[in-house]
Write a structure and sequence with these properties.
Blueprint: H1 2-48, H2 51-85, H3 91-122, H4 125-153
Amino acid sequence: MKLFRLLVPIVFILAFTRFATSQEVQSKSDKEQIIKAQKIAFFTEKIGLTPVEAEKFWPVYNNYWEIKNKIIAERKDKMTFFSQNSDKMSQSEMIKYADQYINFETQLADLLNEYHIKFKKILPIEKVMKIYVADYEFKTYLLMKIKDSGKNEE
């Protein structure tokens, strides 16, 4: 009976923690889907994509961002590790991390160059330039939404 009294609260806590975690994951996924939909609408309008252009553009653009996000995530992991451990690192280790940082930036530049060529094959140059403007403006748009949502919570 004592064991039962001990197990019930533990099972309840574990079940609640699992439920809360799954709600957070679902909520995060929902937010990502909302942002993705907003981005599609934002870009389509800003760039002025026709349905035919959009059909060609989105798979290429999404592929670009998938690769870019992997590079950014890897860079973030390396720089976080460096930041947390730099006081214990030798000069040669610091050089290695500095070189890796430059390598990540080079990968991002190479990726942009590669996809710039791909974008020019599927869109007129005016719309290619609008991609870059829309990228910048969408980041600003999201930051403003975050800032505004913070005001609403206060």
